[in-house]
Structure prediction request, 372 residues.
Amino acid sequence: MAQTPATLMRGGSSKCWIFDARDLPEDRDRLEAMLMEVFGAADPHQLDGIGGGTSVTSKAVFVRPSLNVDADLEYLFAQVGVGECLVDWGRDCGDCATAVALWAVEALGLFTGAPTTTVRMRNINTGTELAAEVDTTAHPLPVTVPGVLGSGTGIHLTFRNPGGKSTGSLWPALAHRNRLSVDGVTMTVSMIDAAAPVVIIDAHSLGISAVASESQVAQHVPMLRKVRTHAAVQMNLACSAEDPIHPVPEVGIVGPPRDYTTTLGEDIRADDYDISVRMISESLPHPSVGLTSAVAIALASTVPDSALGEIYMRESRRAPSLRTERSIRSVPLRLGTLGGVLHCEVKIQGDETEVHLHRAARRLAEAQLCLR
Prediction:
């Protein structure tokens, strides 16, 4: 029986298995077959594999040193099916990028000996460029993230010029705000491609509370999946709404801040954040928010006529003074998610755009995975 080494990491609110790409064949078909077998993808519980039985715990990353002088490493992300034999190679995962950065410092020898070590990364799936500043002090302070009880090593993650990586345009539907009709329901949406293609729905127009609980979001998953297929056509990601459902664009609802209680029992006040966000991951409510989705939402918040820009401008007293032309614009954003409040910051200078997020990662296990 063959074996291959792998490391189980938690990055942000996801878990992923990290492989050194130099240990494995480059052929993607062979990698896909290996992942479906070793994760137990066909089983919705993934009992005969290393998968965790949910979309946020059924992920893999293949990492290799980069030949490009602008990056230290490259990584290929794989979202492994849960209950279906498939592997999605069409997107990135920011939380896994956080895990990759910490893994690279320890496994690839990128540690500089300084209090922080910067890891420059390129995502192979989308071409997105990221930089991760890893806390490499002798005794790093424990850092927590929304939706996770445990702590990890602090990592400051920066997405550089993330727009249009999947569709070629930051606004693939040509407008900042659109009207989309699904099953007789007409809703206000924004369709944006930044780090990942995302369709953002005004919760009020869909008749959903923006601070819906996890169980309430689950009730609306069938409709949100239909919204995904219709938005995919508008974003040039699919030819027809009747095409098989794909995991992109990512789907979420947004609305003004209201008091709510997180899935971990923490009471959040409306004053603690700027915009309510509820996302789905594959076919389940996301425990917080996917990091690539957060990047898209953060950028959309800087546009006043987007589905959430108006909400942000109205709810955040800081917003109007932060929008000045031709100078550096720094736009902070606090997202109220099922797991808690996520802080983002958009920095724009001329044609350069960065989205900053604070995350944490932790190594959970080293393993030799057995392959049939």
